Amino acid sequence: MTGTRETPTAPGVATSAGAPTSRGYRVERMSRARLALAAGQESARHRHIMFALIEADLTVPRRLIRAHQETTGERLSLTAYVVTCVAAALAEFPALNAFRRGRSLVFLDEVIVEVLLERTIDGQPAVGYLPIRNADTKSLRAVHDEIRAGQASRPETIAGQRWLERIPTGLARPLMWYMRRSPRWALRLGVAGVNNLGMGTSVAGWGLAPGAGTLGVTIGGITPRPGLVADALVRQEIAHLTLAFDHDVIDGAPAARFTSRLAELLAAGEAIRDLTADPEAAGSPGA
Question: What is the pLDDT of residues 45-57, one digit of tens each?
């Protein structure tokens, strides 16, 4: 659904459509995709969330990504790297790969990590949900290619599920509630998600996004700062990550252990080393 695009403007100043206005503002009807996003956030508001605001040392992986780009001309997706590490950690902590359904917990056999993509649907900003299936078994190259393909695909809320953007507004919230408690939809979208809010910025800070699953990882700003490594002062690149856990599914101690393991995986850069060591997976210039 689209409406007249209206944004604040000074009285007597022509709008983007060329028509002057004397009201000092414009009104734009929200698209169905935007309303569905709001409904999803409303359903997430009623969950019991634990937040962990952490700093992750990305000095090594960022250096490897820059070296790969200088060699091949290809810019690897940092989001793909984080997804790869989240999936590996999730496979080691299967208790997190679950969701609550009434008085029961439903555990998934497959590790699926949902990636949030910036979209424009019906002329308005929206979010697309891209599930990376069997993410713990995939290389960084495979995850990177899936994300790039998703960014280049038709702008939909969920690939192949265009009907979700056409549901009546009044049904959006109960439908979102049902979807997040349905094994069928959990097997489609997973229970973990990664959202890169800090993409393209160097502003230090954490983003608080509860998400709608059991685990949400939000990438905030990445900033340089001095740090001590082996008694030497070095320049480090520190990412600000927010982890949101569903407390109905996981307690604080195992969530802390998961967080520690994820930070270790992120700092190591092994997924990038594996990619750059394989000539066939290294990509071609300009990819």
Answer: 667 889 999 999 9
**Number of Cβ atoms within 10 Å of the Cβ of 196:** 20
Q: What is the mean pLDDT of residues 10-22?
A: 48
Distance CA 129, CA 103 (A): 28
Judge contact between 52 and 217, C-beta under 8 A.
Answer: no
Q: What is the pTM of this model?
A: 0.79
pLDDT digits (tens, 9 = 90+) for 18-34: 455 577 888 888 776 77
Q: Give the position of tokens 């949900």.
A: 129
